[in-house]
C-alpha cells in the first residue's frame, strides 16, 4: 500500500507559540518552576524528548505517570489558549491534501506534537478531515519510532504498508533523518527554518521551496509510479 505522511508545524501550517507557552504553564502547575525553552534548538524534536530534557535541565525526576500528567496539563492549557494561537495553513498545503484525498491516498501525520495538540492544530487549519492515522510526540523520542507506530496503525486497519513506497514530508533535518531511518522516501520543504540546501545535505531525497509548488510536488511522486496526472 502506498501512503503519504506529513509533519505539521511549518510543513502544513504556521508554528505555534502558544504550544510552548502551555509547556511553561504545565511545569509551573506541576513543579512550581519557571522554565525557558530555546525554540531554535528543539526544531524537529518530539514533545516527549523536550519534556524529559527540560525536566533534567531543572533537576526534576519524572516517570511515565508524571509524564502523562504533564501531557494532560499541556493539552488543557493549549485548549484554553486556542484563541491566542494564530494557526494559518501554509500556501499550497490545502491543495496538495485535497488532491491526494481525491486520489484515495491514505494520509497520515507524524509530528513532535503530543496527540491532543496535534489534532487541535489540524482542526484549526481545516485539515483534520484529511488524516486517518498518525504517530505523535507523546509516543516516543525518536522520529523513526513514531513513524513506525503510525505505519503499524495503518497496516492494522488496511493491510501491509511498503515503507519504500511511502513518502514523508517535513521541514527539518530531524524529519528527514527519521524518515530515512524508517526506510521512507523523504521530501524536504523549506517553509521552516532550514533551506533546501540544508535539507538536501540532511539526506532528503527531494526538496521543494514549499507545498505552494504543487506541480513540483506531484512531479516527484509521479516519478515513483504513483499514477498522478495534473
Automatic annotation (TrEMBL):
Is Hydrolase included in the keywords of this UniProt record? Answer: yes
GO terms (molecular function) for this protein are:
phosphoglycolate phosphatase activity
Pfam families, per this entry?
A: HAD_2
Q: Name one GO biological process term.
A: DNA repair
Alphabetically ordered keywords of this record: Hydrolase
Tell me which SUPFAM superfamilies the record gives: HAD-like
Superkingdom classification of source: Archaea
The chain's coiled-coil residues are: none
The family database entries (InterPro entries) matched by this protein are listed as: HAD-like_hydrolase_sf, HAD-like_sf, HAD_2, HAD_sf, PGP-like_dom2
Q: Does the keyword RNA-binding apply?
A: no
* Entry protein name: HAD family hydrolase
Q: Which organism is it from?
A: Methanothermobacter wolfeii
Amino acid at each position: 500500500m502506498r501512503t503519504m505522511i506529513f509533519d505539521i508545524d511549518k510543513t502544513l501550517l504556521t508554528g505555534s507559540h502558544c504550544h510552548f507557552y502551555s509547556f511553561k504553564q504545565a511545569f509551573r502547575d506541576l513543579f512550581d518552576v519557571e522554565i525557558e525553552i530555546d525554540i531554535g534548538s528543539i526544531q524537529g524534536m518530539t514533545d516527549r524528548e523536550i519534556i524529559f530534557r527540560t525536566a533534567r535541565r531543572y533537576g526534576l525526576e519524572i516517570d511515565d505517570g508524571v509524564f502523562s500528567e504533564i501531557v494532560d496539563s499541556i493539552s488543557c492549557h493549549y485548549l484554553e489558549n486556542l484563541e491566542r494561537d494564530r494557526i494559518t495553513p501554509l500556501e499550497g498545503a490545502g491543495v496538495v491534501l485535497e488532491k491526494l484525498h481525491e486520489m484515495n491516498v491514505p494520509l497520515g501525520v507524524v509530528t513532535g506534537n503530543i496527540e491532543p495538540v496535534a489534532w487541535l492544530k489540524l482542526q484549526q487549519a481545516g485539515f483534520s478531515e484529511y488524516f486517518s492515522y498518525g504517530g505523535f510526540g507523546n509516543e516516543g523520542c525518536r522520529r523513526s519510532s513514531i513513524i513506525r507506530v503510525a505505519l503499524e496503525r495503518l497496516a492494522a486497519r488496511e493491510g501491509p504498508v511498503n515503507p519504500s513506497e511511502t513518502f514523508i514530508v517535513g521541514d527539518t533535518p530531524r524529519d528527514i533523518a527519521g524518515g530515512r531511518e524508517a526506510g521512507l522516501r523523504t521530501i524536504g520543504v523549506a517553509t521552516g527554518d532550514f533551506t533546501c540546501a540544508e535539507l538536501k545535505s540532511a539526506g532528503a531525497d527531494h526538496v521543494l521551496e514549499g507545498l505552494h509548488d504543487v506541480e513540483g510536488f506531484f512531479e516527484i511522486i509521479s516519478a515513483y509510479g504513483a499514477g498522478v496526472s495534473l
